[in-house]
Design goal:
single chain; 98 residues; alpha+beta; 3 strands
Length: 98
């Protein structure tokens, strides 16, 4: 939830540089753009995406295997494709995200 809510008119939003509006959002504000009394657009920070940890994935796979009563086998071609993807990954540059 945003700590600070900024209400501006559609006319003000159109006259304001988008970078300025985004700076407010980046600082933790929510920008509500209104047409008269009606809000029709809201700018706010995106919810962080949470990926599944490898340990969680392994635990789920082990639980699934226990439910099945056997260990599923990985298709050789799929395993090769997956290995190729993993080996060609490049580190993400997150320095510009913050």
């Amino acid at each position: 939830m945003a700590k600070h809510v900024i209400h501006i008119s559609e006319k003000e939003a159109a006259a304001t540089d988008v970078a300025t509006l985004l700076a407010h959002v980046r600082a933790g504000a929510e920008v509500v753009i209104e047409n008269g009394e009606r809000a029709f657009a809201v700018l706010h920070a995106a919810e962080p995406v949470r990926g599944r940890a490898i340990s969680e994935s392994i635990a789920l796979a082990e639980a699934h295997a226990k439910e099945l009563g056997y260990e599923p086998t990985l298709d050789a071609e799929f395993a090769a494709d997956l290995a190729g993807i993993i080996n060609s990954r490049k580190p993400r540059n997150v320095s510009t995200w913050e």
